[in-house]
Amino acid sequence: MDAAIRRSGKQRRAEILAARRRRQNRQSALAAQENRRLAPLSSAPVDASLLLPINSDGAPEFVSRGYYLDQVFRCIDCAAEGIWYAERQKWWYEVAGGHPCSIARRCAACRAKERQRKALARRQSGVAANSASSAPAARQHGHDPAISGGD
Ligand SMILES: [Zn+2]
């Protein structure tokens, strides 16, 4: 009896922990995806006709190899190791129009941060340009005689 109660208490704690872990996992799902270290290497075929033109000085390895391979890289922002998946490479070079000599440099988390930073900068510069015309007229500011008098 006693043991059963203790065990169910333990189970509940474990469930709470598991739920908390699930929440955390969801938040960093992207980062986790990028870090499936134990996943076997995957590959994707190269469709060279979709690539941007390459300078004569050396085509990247995947072109002569004929397929993309998962690539381990180190994030230039946080130095975390990440995997650039073959499928993502295919998308980057053949769909998004990434230069064939460009490679992954940021992990998913830092990429998201960078995207946010850029979007914010864009929005702010847009706001600054727009608000010049619609700024509220002369705000009443500073000196309030009722307060600063006092003797
Ligand atoms: Zn990073």
Describe the structure.
The structure is a single chain. This protein is mainly alpha-helical and 151 residues long. It has two domains: 1-38; 41-131, no CATH class. It is built from six helices and four strands, in the order H-H-E-H-E-E-E-H-H-H. The chain has helices spanning 2-27, 29-34, 61-65, 86-95, 108-134, 145-148; strands at residues 43-45, 67-69, 71-74, 81-84. Strands 1-2 form a two-stranded antiparallel ribbon. A hairpin with a 6-residue loop joins strand 3 (71-74) and strand 4 (81-84). The longest helix has 27 residues, at 108-134. The radius of gyration is 27 Å and the shape is flat. It starts with a helix and ends with a helix. 10% of the residues are buried. Residues 133-150 have low confidence and may be disordered. Bound molecules: zinc ion (ZN). The site of zinc ion (ZN) has 8 residues, from helix 5.
